What we know:
Elements: H1 7-12, H2 15-33, H3 40-43, H4 54-74, H5 87-95, H6 105-125, E1 132-134, E2 146-148, H7 149-175
Antiparallel strand pairs: 1-2
Helix pairs in contact: 2-6, 2-7, 4-6, 4-7
Amino acid sequence: xxxxxNPSESASLTGERADLLRTLNKHRHFLRFTTRDxxxxxxxxxxxxxxxxxxGLIKHVTAVERSWVNFILDGPSAMPDFSAMTEADxxxxxxxxxxxxxxxxxxxxxxxxxxxxxxxxxxxxxPDLDATQPLPNAPWFEPGVRWSARQVLLHLxxxxxxxxxxxxxxxxxxxxxxxxx
Length: 181
């Protein structure tokens, strides 16, 4: 499943939005590419001392992208109050980084594609990339700071690129395959 706008939408999208989505889609491709030809067992396997696996990284990036798109639309109420998370909340969040029993690589990739399609559509149709929302409560955000839709999209690009790099290392540890080189 492709993660680009349909031809009629992408043909009309130009300038900054086209550049931002093209960059995000490039990094999405590299992240997905690390999972090529893997079984569900391989996608759930750790290949480094880290707790990360490829299926879990796809799940995490999917959840992050979904949350930030909801933030663009609904503000900080769309995201958890990270400063008030319980041990149970943190345990549930840790499951985001694992391919759990009953989950499949095909399933998490399909969910990622659906979230990506929603993001692409929103960015193409959003009236103003400068529209801001206050950031949610979290120890890593300065209180009172607001992010624009553009800043959120730049954050998603950085997050996806960083995790694509992690995924490349994990994949190479599994079977020697590389995304590049």
